[in-house]
């Protein structure tokens, strides 16, 4: 019985109907949307098991400059460090020495992936650097490269401009 359930294909038309219902109820044309109350994403914070390894990966392989390395105000002895990912945005990390945080896991309410937009010529260059560094990655639609960082967080480099997804405006 379990195998039959696993082999059964989901009713995609029902999923699309639900998306349509939600779009119809909540999505407004851009000229009818209020301005956001937010200024932007200050930083997204991930967890690092090894500060130096994380710095080498993000700064040396992905070419995101390290901008600061300070003590985490919430956990004495822990580091809080930041990388410039362009456009005034930061990717941040904490380490938690002495605290067993366990391996990376995707859970409801957790992180699925971080998508970072790069110019198309930089995208090709960075995919080459991933290959040179031996980082397993998957290229999708010739604009997205998915891979995991040294601690297992899934990262996407996307050549689409900010506010676009596969040629569609999303902002």
* CATH class category name of one domain: Alpha Beta
Helix content: 25-40%
Major sheet: order of its strands?
1-4-3-2
Mean pLDDT: 91
Identify low-pLDDT runs.
none
| CATH 4th-level superfamily of one domain | 2,3-Dihydroxybiphenyl 1,2-Dioxygenase, domain 1
Order of helices and strands: HHEHEEEEHEEEEE
- Determine the strand fraction and express it as a percent band: 25-35%
Report on the biggest sheet: 4 strands, mixed
Alpha-carbon distance between the two ends: 44 Å
CATH topology assignment of one domain: 2,3-Dihydroxybiphenyl 1,2-Dioxygenase, domain 1
Gross morphology is globular
Helical stretch count?
4
Number of beta strands: 10
Radius of gyration: 19 Å
CATH architecture of one domain: Roll
In short:
The chain contains four helices and ten strands; from the N terminus they run ααβαββββαβββββ. By secondary structure, it is an alpha+beta fold.
Protein described:
- This is VOC family protein.
- Residues 1-39 are annotated as: Disordered.
- Residues 40-160 form the VOC domain.
- With 171 residues, the chain is an alpha+beta fold.
- The chain has a domain at 43-96 and 109-169: 2,3-Dihydroxybiphenyl 1,2-Dioxygenase, domain 1 (Roll), CATH 3.10.180.10.
- The chain is 26% helix and 26% strand.
- The chain has four helices and ten strands.
- The chain has helices at residues 2-7, 12-26, 51-61, 120-132, and strands at 43-47, 66-71, 79-84, 90-94, 114-117, 137-140, 144-148, 154-158, 164-165, 168-169.
- The strands form three sheets. It has a four-stranded mixed β-sheet, with helices on one face. It has a four-stranded mixed β-sheet with strand order 5-8-7-6, with helices on one face.
- The longest helix is centred in the first third of the chain and has 15 residues, at 12-26.
- The termini are far apart.
- The mean pLDDT is 91.
